Every structure is written in C-alpha cells, then in structure tokens.
C-alpha cells in the first residue's frame, strides 16, 4: 500500500478517536467513553430523551450521562438482534471465530484506555482494572477458538434402516444482564460464548458502570461485527425493572443470562417461566475459607489476601466466612492482621500505590457498616479497621473481626466489602457442617497439606468452585457457576457454550 494511503487511514482513525475522546474535570480523557446506546450498529439516544448520570465512586465526579433506555429501546434492540440472527447463525464457525479473535486483539491493543475508563466508573485500582481487561479478553480468545468445536453426535441405531444424528444449533437472541463489579469480563464471558454459538445478544449493563459495556460496542464496530449482532442498552436503576421485564417476556428472546443477586435472579427466573425461556443464573455466594491445622499458614494468609480483598471485597467469589482450626487460629490471625496493615493501601484507583479502592456507592458502604456494627453488638472483636476510611465517603477500612458466631450478619450474609470475619472450629466435620450451612454455594476455599483430607473436603463442600491451596481460581478454560441458590448453568470453559445452543435430534429413515 502506498505511504500516502497509509497516512490517510492513520489520520482518519486518529480523528475518529479524538472525536469520541471526552475530557473531564480531572484532566483525564477517556478515549472509549460513549454517551449513547448501541442498537443495530448505530449510536442512539433514548426516545424519551431521558438520561442518567454516571459517577466516579472515588470522588463523586460526574463522568457523563447516558441514555435511560426503556421498553421501546429494548424492543428495538431485540428486533435488531432477531433480524441479525437470521444471517449470523449461518456464518461459518470459522468466520465467527475470526470476528471474536479480532475483538480480542482490539481489547488487548486498547487495554490501557479500557482500564482507565473502568477505574473511573467502577473505582478499582488501575492495576486491577487492567487485570480485568486482560481477563475479559481471554474469554474472547477462548471462544474464538471454541466456535469451531461445537460438535454434534452420531448415535448407533438399533435399526438397520435408520441413522440417528444429533445437531447443536444456536438458540437465538440472548439477553445478557451484567453486574457492576466486573463490567467488562462479565460481558465478554457471556457474549463470547453466545456469539461463538451463533447467537446474537442484547446487553443490559449495570446502571453504575455502563461505559465499559458501551466501549465493547465501539470495539465491535472496529472488529467488523455485523450490525445487530451486539446491542447495548443502558438504563437507570428506576428504569431497569421495565427493561428486565421486556427482555424476560419477549418471545423473540430465547435465552437470558444474568449475573447478580439471588433475589433479583429469582424474579427474573419466575418472569421468564411465562414463556419457558432458557435461563442461566450466576447469583450470590457466601464463600467459606477454611484453614486446617495441617495448612501452610503463610500460603493460607497469601491466599486469603488475594481472595478477600480483590476489588475491595466486591466479588461474588470473595471469601466471606473464614473458618480457622483451633491449633493454628492465633498464628493465622496474627499473620493476616500484619499483612492487612502492611500490604493494603486505600485510595483513588488512579494512584499507583492504591490496591483498595472505594466501594461502588454509598448504599454499599451502609451495608458493610451495618454488618460490622452487628458483629460488634453480638460479641465480635475488631482487630483491624472497622469503620469508614477518611479517603472519601465511599471508602471503608480493610477490617478483621474475630470471635465471629453463626448468628452474625458477617457470617450469614454476603458482605461485599473488605471485611474478614473469622470463626474458630475444632474438627474437620465441624468445618464441613459450618461451610455447608447456607442456601447458597458458589465458591469455597480451603488450605491443607493432608492429601486425604484434601480429597474428602473437596468432595464434600457444597459449592460449584473449589480452591485447594489457592485463592484465585477463575480461568477462561474452567467452568464457573454455583449450586443451590447460587444459580443455574456454567460460564467459561467449553461448558459455557451449552446455555446458548439447542440440541436437535434428526432421524434418517428408509436407508435400506
């Protein structure tokens, strides 16, 4: 290609980026900030003209406004996805994989800009936000490869004149409702599987973090993904219920995937049942973190730090209830408290030394404060932290509570904050009973150097994910999902495709 043509395309791309780049009072500009909904390949406003603000949880700065989409925009997005499905489903798996690969490469290329936008709207440290962008990209890479591995079956027939074949076909339009704590990776994990299977999607991002979702629309444009395959409709907290109801009740939406609270998941499940829609749910957890007498305590402390304080404790797989056997109880507490004091730095996510950012909003701070106050009233002992941090109104001190009992909120409920709650136990049987004494079962962790104990406990924990001597267990190759009231279905891995396909049996007769 002649040099002047290359320069032309470079300048055009640079102008396009500059047109979308938005500078804020902080002095930062966010290249991928988009202030419109993304439907059928177009950036649009809401029909009502209504918008809602997006705030930086670290300082309350208004990052901008986005359209407050309602039922009309939702139906428009559904129609666009349904129309696009008629052609996308017949594109070869190799071509779909190539589009996902292009999207993966763009996310890696622009990881810094995407991470900065994520930090601004979600509050997590820039280092952690960069980790999420790379993690989210890994699902696009994984499903770009899995698209060509959706195999059917040939079943040996009991009749000589019949051939029995099983086909796996895309289910149709998938509605994806995603949370604020991983506003990029929770979309790519769902969307990657759906697109690989041949489905099209309507994405409803969390009201607190719509910009990271809309940035994916910008990448999709650049990757050459056809209009209508990906649609993104932000909505405010007030409008979200009608958007959810529309997605659940639309006969054109054939699958719904939701990550969020168990309470909301149950409502969506019931609403979808009116037309027997396929539903996958990744709901709340209350993860036990068990430290046995045989554990390597230094490794257990390191695992506790990474598992508990990731994203300021705001993940569904964060360790929630720490069960420590009596012989190592005091040693574990001492080493953990020292690690909390020496390793954790609270502050704005853009500060390079920060590794604990704000909670997402004031409501989250109120909940964590309530949990800590309840523990103290019922006999808990605050060893570290225990109150709001002076970095700002949405910040909470990393906290360590001992002498925890099963009737405390920090034991019974998901904390979703930087609070470690420790309960002492005597026997393995007691630990298993305590760990399983909840209606949810997403993740569980334990530390032991006893191989027999490791096998017993891994089998007996009533959770969907188990970390054995490891605090960080998520990976694109591994299935992610829970048991009991923690949800239905699995995301990631080759099992993640299952929620977006229908199994069709074909019987060929009269062959003899």
UniProtKB/TrEMBL annotation:
Keywords: Mitochondrion, NAD, Oxidoreductase. Residues 43-506 form the Aldehyde dehydrogenase domain. Pfam families: Aldedh. Its main location: mitochondrion. It is found in: Mitochondrion. It comes from the Eukaryota. Transmembrane segments: none annotated. The active site is at residue 282. Pathway: Amino-acid degradation; 4-aminobutanoate degradation. Its EC number is 1.2.1.24. It catalyses: succinate semialdehyde + NAD(+) + H2O = succinate + NADH + 2 H(+). CDD domains: ALDH_F5_SSADH_GabD. The keyword Transmembrane helix does not apply. InterPro entries: Ald_DH/histidinol_DH, Ald_DH_C, Ald_DH_CS_CYS, Ald_DH_CS_GLU, Ald_DH_N, Aldehyde_DH_dom, Aldehyde_DH_Superfamily, Succ_semiAld_DH. Homotetramer. Catalyzes one step in the degradation of the inhibitory neurotransmitter gamma-aminobutyric acid (GABA). Belongs to the aldehyde dehydrogenase family. This is Succinate-semialdehyde dehydrogenase. It comes from Limulus polyphemus (Atlantic horseshoe crab). The gene is LOC106478742.
């Amino acid at each position: 290609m002649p040099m002047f043509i290359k320069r032309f395309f470079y300048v055009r791309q640079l102008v396009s980026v500059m047109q979308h780049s938005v500078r804020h009072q902080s002095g930062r500009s966010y290249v991928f900030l988009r202030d419109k909904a993304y439907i059928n390949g177009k950036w649009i406003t809401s029909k009502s003209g209504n918008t809602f603000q997006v705030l930086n949880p670290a300082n309350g700065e208004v990052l901008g406004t986005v359209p407050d989409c309602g039922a009309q925009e939702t139906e428009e997005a559904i129609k666009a996805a349904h129309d696009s499905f008629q052609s996308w489903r017949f594109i070869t798996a190799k071509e779909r994989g190539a589009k996902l690969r292009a999207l993966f490469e763009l996310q890696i290329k622009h990881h810094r800009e995407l991470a900065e936008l994520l930090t601004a709207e979600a509050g997590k440290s820039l280092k952690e936000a960069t980790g999420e962008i790379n993690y989210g990209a890994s699902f696009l890479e994984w499903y770009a490869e899995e698209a060509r591995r959706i195999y059917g079956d040939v079943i040996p027939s009991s009749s000589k004149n019949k051939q029995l074949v099983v086909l796996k076909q895309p289910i149709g339009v998938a509605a994806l409702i995603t949370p604020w704590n991983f506003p990029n990776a929770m979309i790519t994990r769902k969307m990657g599987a759906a697109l690989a299977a041949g489905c099209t999607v309507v994405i409803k991002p969390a009201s607190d973090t719509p910009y990271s979702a809309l940035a994916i629309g910008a990448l999709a444009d650049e990757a050459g993904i056809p209009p209508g395959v990906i649609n993104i409709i932000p909505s405010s907290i007030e409008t979200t219920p009608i958007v959810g109801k529309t997605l659940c009740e639309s006969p054109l939406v054939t699958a719904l995937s939701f990550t969020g609270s168990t309470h909301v998941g149950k409502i969506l499940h019931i609403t979808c049942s009116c037309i027997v829609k396929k539903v996958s749910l990744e709901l709340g957890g209350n993860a036990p973190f068990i430290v046995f007498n045989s554990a390597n305590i230094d490794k257990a402390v390191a695992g506790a730090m990474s598992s508990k304080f990731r994203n300021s404790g705001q993940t569904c797989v964060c360790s929630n209830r720490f069960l420590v056997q009596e012989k190592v109880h005091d040693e574990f507490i001492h080493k953990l408290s020292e690690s909390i004091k020496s390793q954790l730095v609270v502050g704005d996510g853009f500060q390079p030394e920060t590794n604990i950012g704000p909670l997402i909003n004031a409501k989250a701070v109120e909940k964590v404060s309530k949990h800590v106050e309840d523990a103290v009233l019922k006999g808990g002992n605050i060893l570290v932290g225990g109150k709001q941090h002076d970095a700002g109104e949405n910040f909470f001190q990393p906290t360590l509570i001992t002498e925890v009992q099963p009737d405390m909120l920090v034991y019974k409920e998901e904390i979703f904050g930087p609070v470690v709650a420790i309960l002492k136990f005597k026997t393995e049987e007691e630990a298993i009973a305590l760990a399983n004494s909840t209606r949810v079962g997403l993740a569980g962790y334990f530390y032991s150097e006893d191989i027999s104990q490791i096998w017993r406990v891994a089998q007996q924990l009533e959770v969907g994910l188990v970390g054995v001597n490891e605090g960080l267990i998520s990976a694109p190759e591994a299935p992610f999902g829970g048991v009991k009231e923690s949800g239905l279905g699995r995301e990631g891995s080759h099992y993640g495709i299952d929620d977006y396909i229908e199994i069709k049996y074909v019987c060929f007769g009269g062959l003899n």
